[in-house]
Fold:
Amino acid sequence: MEKLRKVVKEIAYTRDHTNSPALHRSLVPLLTFASSLYGVALHIRRSLYRSSFFHQHRLPVPVISVGNLSWGGNGKTPMVEYITQLLLDYGISPLILTRGYAGGDEAKMLERHLQGGPTKIGVGANRAATAATCFEKYGCANPSSIRTFFDRETAKVKTISQEIGSVVLDDGMQHWSMCRDLEIVMINGMNPWGNGNLVPLGPLREPLPALERADIAVVHHVDLITEKSLGDIEETIHGFKSSIPVFYSKMVPKHLFDVKNDRSYVALEALHDATVLCVSAIGSADAFVKSIGMVGARYVDRLDFSDHYSFKAQDCETMRRRAKGLENRSESKPIIVVTEKDYNRDPEILKSLDPYIVLVLCSKLEITPCRETNVDDFNFTLCKILAVS
Structure:
């Protein structure tokens, strides 16, 4: 199954299959048919919401949706954390609503980063029901007073109410059953649209005209793409909605910790001039591997799995064999590095890779100054939209 997932992903990011392997070419007709069915179902579902046949829930506080149009690697969850911290800075207690997909690796990461603070995290497929439970438990701030927090002149409040003042929808763009006041679409700058087709033939969860619904677009991994690619992405976005403000973000490595002690702190300098084996099951492994190279590793090898994949015992053997091969070639023990998402999925299995050190990379999303925009512009635009919503 894991091999098939990799093949499907390779197809999704290949525009011309003429020179693809036979297995890839044999799957294209089936994936094309499945993609057509998905498109029809998507259109029907969207039409039923537009006609109010399906009910949309309106929450009593402002709702900020962070989503994407394509498969993973777009920076959704890091952006959710960024916005959550912004709300806290404004004195607003946020509620994060997330599906908890594939064992809740992203929810666990948010919980670890935000634990001890006033942020609430609700996990469940029925996010309206989850929100209702949280409102009943923690209370709800007065909606008319909440929006004054988003006025630039009054956004210096330091006292944080324990009542929920805003909701952040993680992966919310296709969650049409809930109304939102602000729609942020995250775009993976390294490969934004794949082959341009809907899943499973391509990586798109919706056709590109869905960009019209977004209030803000954020191009992620901007530090890893060329100026020409950036211009092409902007042109595509503005081709569907000329008025949408576009901002830029990147992941900045901060530190590492040992898988055997999640409270340990390992400086990035531990990877300087080291041989590193990057192991990941995330949406954008390329960005992860490049970040390790930029930290200063002498040699970087990689072992990629499909997004949200849960490592098994045989995978650990594969990691150990790959690490041993690197050790024989470099005459020094390599360091195995994984992402936080991989660690959160199953911390215990990664502790069984002795004699090799396994470190977890902790990174943080930053809004990057680019094309005459910066973090202050992003924060101001977000607040301005919410203040009048």
Remarks:
- The CA atoms of residues 50 and 176 lie 10 Å apart.
- The first strand starts at residue 63 and ends at 68.
